[in-house]
Structure formats: structure tokens, C-alpha cells
């Protein structure tokens, strides 16, 4: 009953978008790449409604914000669409199918992974042109930039069911470190020096930081991951249960929120979590989850302790008053 009431307070809602929503990003508006519609839906987070749909290249799969632009990887047309406001202002041609994107705010560059050619392409945001590329020894998937360490974290698309996360120098693409994940590192997130990894197949969440790497259970099939800096929780989309797990960074599950079919990418925006649900053709909106309330037993314990202190204090005052009265009579 308490759980039911808690979910009602959350008031999870959905926003219909295009077919097979995938990558999702926030810049004033929420931009959702609709993989099978070749469009990007633009959502106003203040009203949770679609304000426009932008036609891009074929099969857009991911997006990233960069200095006022939104870059979209069009995996079916070997290009990156650049959006300003609600219009495509340029299409940048690549040599292979793009997948994931990351933004380096220090150099004002966007990094685009190309899994088929084992490479990463670098786009200069100032002139919207390709400035260099890296050849890798593995097929790159998800990518994220850690501004504190000035490093790129790149997930290896797994051979079989085993993948790694590689740490790259963003200037030359050299590998400076690597971590064995033991599953499919489907998505990466980063906040304040912590890199979060949703690992499919072995169903774990990994956290990598300067102290090392540790992991905990992440549901039946974790895919997307995002950190909410306001409530301090990790949100993990679980395509195995069509739900979003709300977790502490130590792995404790605070809530399990049902959403649409195949929840994938997520973004934090305007105090809410927006979730792409690929088979529901919708974005689900989850309000910020409040920290869990204290157990009733703890409230009773606190209340009982206060009552005891009041009683003890009352008795002490009565004793003191009687002692004072006795002295006066003498």
C-alpha cells in the first residue's frame, strides 16, 4: 500500500514521439532521435509536450549537445546532422555508419564512434568540419568525455558477450587505460569524475573513478544509465523488466518504476528523467524521486526517546522545586 501511494505521487507520464525513439539529449528542449522515423522530436520540458519534429538523416540513433548545437548520428546515411534550435543547419558526411557521440567542452570538439571501421571521427564545433580521426584496435560503441580527467571513455562493442571500456587520450586516440567489464557495456554516463557503465549480459552497473572500479547488480538487462545531481540517485533502464531502477551509488534499489516497452536511453532535464521506450514509441517522464522516508519503527523510536526525555526533565524539575520549597521552610 505504501509503495502504491509512493508511485502515485511520482505521477509518471508519457509523451508520444516518432517510431523507435533512441538517443535523447537536453539543451533548453529535450531532443529525441526517432530511429525508424528519421526524425528528431523536440519536447518542451516545462509542458512535457512535443513542439516540433525535425527531419534528419536515416536511422538516427544518438545525440549530444555541443555549444548550442545538437549533433545527431544518422547511422543509416553515414552522416551527422547538426541542429540549431528547431532546424538542421548542416549535414556532415562520414565514411561509415556513426553510432555514439561525446562532447569535449575544453576543445569544443565532438567525438563520433564508427563501429564498422574501428574508428572515431572528431568534429570541430566552431566550423562544423572534421579535423581528425583515430584508428582503434576494437569496435567502439558508447562514448563519454570526463572533463575532470580530460579523457574519453569508450565502450567496446563485445565479441560474443564480453566487452571492455577503454580510456583514450582525446588528442591522439592513444589508449591510456582499460577496464574489463565482463559483459556488454551498453551505455556510459559521467558526472563529477565518476563514469557509470550499464553492462548488459552480466547485468551489472559499474562505477569507475580515481579510487578504482566497483560494481553491483543492475536488474535483469540494464541498458541506459543517468545520474540525477539533485537527488543523488542513479537511474538505470532495465529492458528485461520494462522498468527504470532508482539506485544509490552504493547499489541500493530505492524504487522500481514501470515504463513502456524496451526502455533505453535517458536524460536528466528540468528536474525530471526522460526515458526513451523504443517499442512504445514514447518518452516516459519520471519526476525526481524523493529520498526514502525513515522506517516507522525509527520514527517510533525517536518519538519514544523524546517522550522519555520530556518525562525525565519534568521529574527533575519537580524534584528541584520540592527541594527549593523545603529549604525555604527551614
From TrEMBL:
Gene3D superfamilies assigned: YVTN repeat-like/Quinoprotein amine dehydrogenase (2.130.10.10)
NCBIfam families given in the database record: beta_rpt_yvtn
Signal peptide range in chain numbering: none
InterPro entries listed in its UniProt record: Host-pathogen_enzymatic-act, N2O_reductase_N, WD40/YVTN_repeat-like_dom_sf, YVTN_b-propeller_repeat
TM annotation in the entry: 298-321
Keyword set, alphabetical order: Membrane, Transmembrane, Transmembrane helix
Protein name: YncE family protein
The UniProt record lists the keyword Membrane: yes
Amino acid at each position: 500500500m505504501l509503495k502504491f501511494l509512493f508511485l502515485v505521487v511520482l505521477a509518471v507520464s508519457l509523451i508520444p514521439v516518432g517510431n523507435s525513439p533512441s538517443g535523447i539529449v537536453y539543451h533548453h528542449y529535450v531532443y529525441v532521435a526517432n530511429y525508424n522515423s528519421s526524425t528528431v522530436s523536440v519536447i518542451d520540458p516545462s509542458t512535457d509536450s512535443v513542439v516540433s519534429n525535425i527531419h534528419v538523416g536515416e536511422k538516427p540513433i544518438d545525440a549530444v549537445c555541443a555549444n548550442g548545437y545538437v549533433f545527431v548520428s544518422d547511422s543509416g546515411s553515414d552522416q551527422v546532422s547538426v541542429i540549431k534550435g528547431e532546424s538542421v543547419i548542416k549535414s556532415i558526411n562520414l565514411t561509415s555508419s556513426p553510432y555514439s557521440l561525446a562532447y569535449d567542452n575544453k576543445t569544443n570538439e565532438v567525438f563520433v564512434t564508427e563501429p564498422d571501421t574501428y574508428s572515431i571521427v572528431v568534429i570541430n564545433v566552431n566550423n562544423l568540419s572534421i579535423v581528425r580521426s583515430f584508428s582503434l584496435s576494437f569496435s567502439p560503441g558508447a562514448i563519454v568525455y570526463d572533463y575532470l580527467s580530460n579523457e574519453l571513455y569508450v565502450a567496446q562493442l563485445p565479441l560474443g558477450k564480453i566487452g571492455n571500456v577503454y580510456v583514450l587520450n582525446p588528442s591522439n586516440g592513444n589508449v591510456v587505460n582499460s577496464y574489463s567489464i565482463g559483459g556488454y557495456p551498453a551505455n556510459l554516463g559521467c558526472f563529477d569524475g565518476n563514469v557509470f557503465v550499464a553492462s548488459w549480459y552480466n547485468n551489472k552497473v559499474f562505477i569507475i573513478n580515481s579510487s578504482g572500479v566497483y560494481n553491483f547488480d543492475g536488474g535483469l538487462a540494464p541498458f541506459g544509465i543517468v545520474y540525477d545531481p539533485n537527488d543523488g540517485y542513479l537511474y538505470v533502464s532495465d529492458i528485461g523488466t520494462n522498468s527504470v531502477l532508482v539506485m544509490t551509488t552504493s547499489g541500493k534499489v530505492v524504487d522500481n518504476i514501470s515504463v513502456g516497452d524496451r526502455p533505453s536511453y535517458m536524460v536528466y532535464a528540468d528536474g525530471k528523467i526522460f526515458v526513451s521506450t523504443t517499442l512504445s514509441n514514447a518518452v516516459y517522464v519520471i519526476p525526481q524521486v524523493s529520498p526514502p522516508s525513515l522506517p516507522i519503527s525509527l520514527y517510533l523510536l525517536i518519538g519514544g526517546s523524546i517522550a522519555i526525555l520530556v518525562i525525565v526533565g519534568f521529574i527533575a524539575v519537580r524534584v528541584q522545586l520540592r527541594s527549593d520549597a523545603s529549604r525555604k521552610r527551614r
